[in-house]
Amino acid sequence: MERITNLILIDADMRRRATISHALSAVQIHVEPFETIAELSGSWPRSGVVLVHDDTHAVGNLIECMADHGEWFPIIAFSETPSAERIVEAILDGAIDYVAWPIAADELNGALSRAVARAETVGSAKLREVMARARIDRLTRREKEVLSGVASGLSNRLIGDKLSISPRTVEIHRANMLNKLGANHTSDAIRIAIEAALVN
Fold first, then answer.
1. CB 12 within 8 A of CB 96
2. Sheet holding 97-101, edge to edge
């Protein structure tokens, strides 16, 4: 099992941060505690696994922050008595695991080790997805629709027919879309769409 030595803890609750830090120091895990994602952003770490308290959109916000920094760390979300829907949402947003609080130190250590092992297989792909999603988020709804059409292999005329706009308007949206994505060619835009899981 992989060994983790650095944990990035994001939790607004000072007592819980102290409890987790103390429990993990017993198993030789260094904890870097942060109150908020904004605080983490101002002091970006070199490595580690992130343990984030899952309050409103915490995982999604953290993924956006990672995209801004161009670096991905495996994320474990946690909360008190989480619902199945909440766990699924956090995993879909980008968490690699989810644990219920309170959790024993040895169980948490096991979850951290599993996260490190999983991160080795999904890390670079996840970073590419995060970066691609950040680029696609810059597009307007219409530009995303044009990108989807392009990625499906449709011509400007067929995309125009599908969206009820002229081929010339499709061309304009396509040029804007390529520019915003920083893509030199249509093939670059399609690769970004695939990496962002916009198309299969």
1. no
2. 30-34, 6-10, 49-53, 75-80, 97-101
| Tens-digit pLDDT string for the chain (200 aa) | 445 668 999 999 999 999 998 888 887 888 999 999 999 988 888 888 999 999 878 998 898 888 778 778 889 999 998 889 889 888 888 888 899 998 887 888 888 888 888 877 776 676 677 778 888 888 999 999 999 999 888 999 999 999 999 999 999 999 999 999 988 888 889 888 888 877 65
Among 3.40.30.10, 2.60.40.2890, 3.40.50.970, 3.40.50.2300, name the CATH number for the domain at 6-124: 3.40.50.2300
Structure tokens at 163: 């969206």
- Residue found under tokens 């044009």: 146
- Going from N- to C-terminal start, the domains of the chain cover 6-124, 138-195
The structure's pTM equals: 0.68
Angle (deg, nearest 10), helices 105-136 and 186-195: 150
What is the CATH number assigned to the segment(s) 138-195? 1.10.10.10
